Amino acid sequence: MAEPLIRMTNIRKSYGRVQALEDANFHVNEREIVGLLGDNGAGKSTLIKVLSGAVPLTSGDIFIRGKKVSLRSTSDAIAHGIETIYQDSALVTQLSIARNLFLGREPIKPPRFLNRMDQEAMNTVARDLLKQVGISKNIPPTTPIGSLSGGERQAVAIARAMHFDSDLIILDEPTNNLGVAETQGVLSFVRSARDSGHSCIFIAHNIHHVFQVVDRIVVMRRGKVVADDIDPKTTSVAEVERIITGMSDKEIRDAITDGKPSH
Amino acid sequence: MENHSLVPRLIARPEFGPFVLLVVEIAVFWSFNHDFLSPQNISNTLAFTVELGLIALAMTLLMTSGEFDLSVGSLFGFSPVLMWTLFNSGLTSLEAGFVAALLVAAFIGLVNGWFVTQLKIPSFLVTLGMLLVVRGTALFVTDGFPQRTWSAEGSWLAEALVGDFFIGPFRIYMSLFWFIAAAIALGYVLTQSRTGNWIQAAGGNPSAARARGVNVSGVKIGLFVLSSVMASLAGVISSLRTSAANPNSGTGYELEVIAMVVIGGTALTGGRGTIIGTVLGILILRVMRNGIVLIGVPGLAYNIFIGAIILGMMALHSWLERRHQAGT
Ligand SMILES: Nc1ncnc2c1ncn2[C@@H]1O[C@H](COP(=O)(O)OP(=O)(O)OP(=O)(O)O)[C@@H](O)[C@H]1O
Ligand SMILES: [Mg+2]
């Protein structure tokens, strides 16, 4: 079997006496959208924070394409091709779309010693990218992020991850507080990211949203991964809901294998 | 938004309010007293304006990055005292004393930046502490007395910084050109360079900037150094022009400078800054001080007007900001 893009083994994370992750095992394959589900406090956000370098793990290993890595900060993770998208926090509201897209990697116009940004190039690329992620409205790339809607902001963040070739794009509850049209927008950004070769982790409480985009569903409960190979095409929403709310391991196995839990 | 016509776009700019205020101010003072626009009055006003202005330009960048510096007034007083003390004691030439004063200022900026970024202490507290240390040192080494200042005429340093000449009836000091050069250079840095993008990001959303690999601490430390060095330079220029080095000079300048910057439209909370706005803010406050005296309002009433301008401008900026956020 080919090495997955990301493999996390026996991940433990404790906040003081709270054990947020207990020997969690998790992986993401190349070109795959994984839906990460679980009740409140199950440990989903903690797992992806460990993966995005936002919090240090207590013990466990992370491998990228089979190579062990240590992710000490979010910029570490980004350098390894892991990009996390939060609804607001990853963008600077005062700066324009184009300036946000290229923040930290601004192209320079020669002569280099003048340190001058190539703003035309930035705007041109930004305009293309916005079209690619499916923002149909004609929003100029010079628009400040502050005047975009929540869904549009995430589109910008996804566009950025795609442009800089992140291997893995993580979205933690991207559809919260979004309207119907914007939610569909975000879902289609996720699909277009996969179609151009990226992998995604998609966390959402709305199972229907998850079912619409993901290739595989992983369920967490009380800091553990309790099911990691649920196929949304052959499993019903009701079954997944039952797994999330918790049954014995045997019942879960039954639910996944024959689709008829003995409840 | 691109199809808006020119006039509403001009009005929406943060510099528009300050610009109108400046024009009104000048018109009112001039209508009361035509001497207000006399070459002599303009020359006199400009001489000191650019000295404070140098500090305000650096403060604009620092405030855009989300920090500010209360120690600038104390450095304005301390640096010339240090330069003249070194020179009078025969330890260094005037030029070497000048370089030493700038280096000490840079070090002070470094310490400010280190406390703010590494120990995570708010810049308000760090630079307030530094204000007391620097001002206290200036008073201590001089026993509170002004330093003897040799008339610096003929020294190339004095010529380069405050050499004066006449353009028509206007008496112009070299410092005006340094101010213009600094305004252009820092305006360029803020709006055109990638450093400017990092400065704005550092003030607007530091954790997002850090995640993109921007060295937020480095940017801020650099700006603290710039702020200290500019305050030091301004103090030396003022001292050479007036042939005085008083350990108390510069008292209260920090607040006047911050007022100039925010009146111009730079956000106190960081993320957005404008050098053009700051230049307007500098002129607004200096014209106000000069005009009030000239039309016969008691100078002691000056602060009433300054306070009113600050409040009025803040109200305007916050209104524009809300309209902006609403996406109009
Ligand atoms: N900073 C923290 N300090 C202490 N405990 C924490 C912290 N962050 C999370 N926890 C705890 O860790 C556990 C897992 O939290 P986590 O945020 O990962 O859950 P989640 O699955 O994302 O839940 P939700 O669906 O509500 O977002 C919870 O019990 C939570 O209280
Ligand atoms: Mg969560």
UniProtKB/TrEMBL annotation, chain A:
Signal peptide: none
Pfam family, one: ABC_tran
Domain of life of the organism encoding this protein: Bacteria
Molecular functions (GO terms): ATP binding; ATP hydrolysis activity
Entry keywords, A to Z: ATP-binding, Nucleotide-binding
UniProt-listed InterPro entries: AAA+_ATPase, ABC_carbohydrate_import_ATPase, ABC_transporter-like_ATP-bd, ABC_transporter-like_CS, P-loop_NTPase
Coiled-coil boundaries: none
Domain ABC transporter: residue ranges: 6-247
Annotated family: Belongs to the ABC transporter superfamily.
This protein's name: ATP-binding cassette domain-containing protein
Annotated organism of origin: Mesorhizobium ciceri
Automatic annotation (TrEMBL), chain B:
N-terminal signal peptide: none
Keywords: Cell membrane, Membrane, Transmembrane, Transmembrane helix
Keyword match Magnesium: no
Subcellular location: Cell membrane
Membrane topology: Multi-pass membrane protein
Gene Ontology CC annotation, any one: plasma membrane
Taxonomy, superkingdom: Bacteria
Gene Ontology terms, MF aspect: transmembrane transporter activity
A Pfam family it matches: BPD_transp_2
Transmembrane segments: 16-33, 45-63, 96-116, 123-141, 170-190, 219-237, 257-285, 292-316
Name assigned to this protein: Inner-membrane translocator
